[in-house]
Amino acid sequence: MNKKERIKAFSDGDSEEEQINKSRCTKKSFTSSEVLSIKSGEKPYRLFTVHNGKKDSSGDGSTNLLPQNLKHDKEFILDAISQHATNLQHVSPDLKKDHEFILQAVQRNGFALENCKQNKQIVYEVIKQCHHTIAYLSNKLRNDLEFLLSAVKQNEQILMYLSDHLKSDRDFMLNVVKRNDIALKYATMDLKKDKQVVIEAVCQNASSFQYVSPDLKSNKDFILECVSINVCTLGYVSYSLRVNKEFMLHVIENYNGYAAHYASY
């Protein structure tokens, strides 16, 4: 296999493993000239090759192609991960435990997050700082209820990436609104009409009332129930109610004198 064929074998594409196997590549590491070519960004590359399903010391049928002097070169490896997220699988154990390195890797290539999903603590840390990275997780992990409930605690903005199925799951969203004060914003309209879901949300933060369905926003009895739980809800009811002297006096006399602060009459 000549140099041109080797470079082609390591070029970008879904059939890279097949190209390598078909060529019976016996390459053990990159040459100095190839390292320079890789660093220049001339070709996308991977740090390993696959051998017809045969397992070796790596345990997964792959061989690390990095020469010893590059195995701890973080910048070089990060460049490799930016080209192929799967390169993260083959970094040294020390780097896999390095939270800062993992965060940098995911920032370079969001799909790298999928390759460290076994270490949920690292995943949580990454999501905490880069909420959009949850979009790169597999569907399986993005529908893992236990994982998502914990992740919401790390970064509330991941709620925008929930599947439609979860946004309509009443039990799941009930748990979420108890943990996050803006979760109701991302619920389906059916759940925004659900009095129990709304009340749980208002208990956490009165601002959640702005996301309830139009029907509930015009339901005076329900509004009074919410105000009795969190008087600050009045800050999010319609202006027409806040200028309604009869309604506001009723609230002030029967629920909370502080309600006068929200009166507009």
From TrEMBL:
It comes from the Eukaryota. Residues 73-115, 119-167, 169-217, 219-264 form the DUF4116 domain. InterPro entries: DUF4116. Pfam families: DUF4116. Residues 1-25 are annotated as: Disordered. This is DUF4116 domain-containing protein. It comes from Naegleria fowleri (Brain eating amoeba).
